[in-house]
Design brief:
With about 170 residues, the chain is of the alpha+beta class. It contains five helices and seven strands, in the order αααββββαββαβ. Strand 1 and strand 2 form a beta hairpin. The longest helix is centred in the N-terminal third of the chain and has 19 residues.
């Protein structure tokens, strides 16, 4: 009986040593999952979906800006407080993090920030400033990009973008 236990432990130890993960294993699994997704959906439909994800840029007054049109829920505040075009500076998975960032924007920077949840991706977006006019929102983003000290806090998205409320 002791021999079987020792043999089982030896086999288990060999199995643990032989199953190391590596970057090649992860890449192979990822490539296989992407191929399976493309097969299930169809190559043409998959390419259309990927192109649609990249197609959110729009030119306003000579400036290219990302504009996402979506149905949104307002987390804090009323619908009257939320403007049609909101400049997004942070996106969070959890509401407490979004509220904390929003509160710091309001206290330290003096903006009238608010949080909305985008129903399409189920994430909490922190809007630094809302506008009723699209060119004003684009000018605000341009001001952020040209003057890094305009907002002293770290912006948590690579490039600020506009969330258009539907």
């Amino acid at each position: 009986m002791k021999h079987y236990i020792i043999l089982a432990l030896a086999i288990f130890a060999l199995a643990l040593v032989g199953c190391k993960t590596s970057e090649e294993n992860y890449k192979a699994a990822y490539d296989k999952a992407v191929a399976r997704t493309q097969e299930n959906v169809g190559k043409d439909a998959y390419d259309k979906v990927q192109a649609e994800k990249r197609r959110y840029t729009e030119v306003v007054n000579g400036d290219s800006v990302r504009i996402v049109r979506a149905f949104c829920n307002i987390v804090d505040g009323t619908a009257a407080d939320v403007k049609k075009y909101g400049v997004v500076v942070a996106v969070f998975d959890q509401l407490i993090n979004a509220r904390s960032y929003r509160d710091r924007l309001c206290e330290q920077e003096g903006f009238e920030s608010y949080v909305v949840i985008n129903n399409t991706d189920k994430k909490y977006h922190v809007i630094v400033q809302g506008f009723d006019d699209k060119p004003q929102a684009v000018a605000f983003i341009k001001n952020i990009q040209e003057n890094p000290d305009f907002i002293k806090m770290k912006i948590l998205v690579p490039i600020p973008w506009i969330l258009e409320k539907r």
